[in-house]
Amino acid sequence: MPELLQLPPELLERIVEFVAISVPTVGDDPYDYEEENKYKAINDPAFSSWSRPYNKFAVTPRPDVSSLQSLRLTSRHFSHAWATHLYRCVRLMPNQGSASRYNKILATPSLAQLTKLVVCPTLTHVEMVFSIQCVGPSGFDDGNYPEDVEFREEVLSAFYAGLNHPKHPAAKVYDLGIKNLQDLTPQVLMDSAEDKDTGFNKDFQQVMSRITHFSLQVATEDNEHSPEIELHVPEIHDFFGHELETYWLAPIADNLVYLKLYTSEMPFGMYPKCNLPKLPKLRKLLLGNLSIVNDDLIDWILSHAATLEELTLDAAIIAVGAEFIEQSVDIANRRVNYLPLRIEEGRPCYRPQPQAYTEQRWFWSTRWHHIFNRFQHGLPHLKHFAFGHGNRGENASFDEAEALTCELEDGRYQFYDEGTGPCNWLDLDRHNTVNDHRLKDEDNVVYQPECDEEDWQALKDLLHELEKPR
């Protein structure tokens, strides 16, 4: 211990930081890079992202409280270092005990000034976490959803009201996170211009106008009995096709330098279609559960070439093909056709265009090595790239997005089939056919892409490029 305490203060601080936030190690990853040389790529890069620390400007992850408390007992010399991390994030729960403990922190000046993640004069980061389970007005409700639409809206209203308190506004907050926001924007946030200066809407507009870092995970409804019909819930299409862009992102587009956008489970991008605004100052982008079936979303990412420095794609899927039986599609451009936006009972409706029962299928020849190559040559300021599959088993990928490394999975290519359940997304069989007998006809066999080596080499080339001085 005496030798340890003789280290420079900067090194001691780094030790405490790594204890405070446990970054996954290579051994924790299900993919071993020594074995993954099956892709036969040469001149492997250093993969410095393995030890990449979490971005301090991200709302999550939260400190490892138990480790910090243990560290406190080792030596008084660590007191200030562990306190900085331990009290930086205070989780305030809706009960008297939690409120009393927080009041004690606020009553201790040396601790109160360390707190950054709850409402106080020094607050810069804030996060609201809802239940991952939700149900909408047209969904399946079996009574097991603890947070209904009304409850969520009331909590959101109180949340923004607290941040925009008339006497003590959280004026320094620039980093906002909402985990498991239901895919149903509160009606009051979509009201006409003359209503925007009242209550919830006013608080929302003023708080969001100060945000430069926005982390959002969208919760969608589950139907345990028939998961394949979840995409028939209309609110999903309204939100990703219109509300997300119009009410959440476009108003703050000119300010955003950091965007983390995830769904709790459902792939978004192809279906439901996702429309996103241009973000002229964007420097860091993290997307989780993205589905790609044409160049639209790739072109959108590349449109930020002048500013983008870091890019993470978590559980991203290329749809090598898709089959629809009840929705109208543009086969040539690989898009689902949507009806013109309309207003029903005061809410915007952006819905797929239905058609008579007819099988319509398309295929897409673009592979990940094509996209990696476009990133390598089309994002001149890129310094960091992560591509893989986060911790979906514990629904922790949103929290751990900053620690994602690079890996390749067979699931990066899938086929979408509207008529198949319980999941519409089908993993492709290594024996050259999709796992669905209806698609095994002589003209339209869906193959597992045989491009592992090309994908792996293109990924290595991209990472090598990022290691060069810029």
From TrEMBL:
Q: Per its UniProt entry, which superkingdom is the organism in?
A: Eukaryota
Q: What is this protein called?
A: F-box domain-containing protein
Whose protein is this, by species?
Aureobasidium mustum
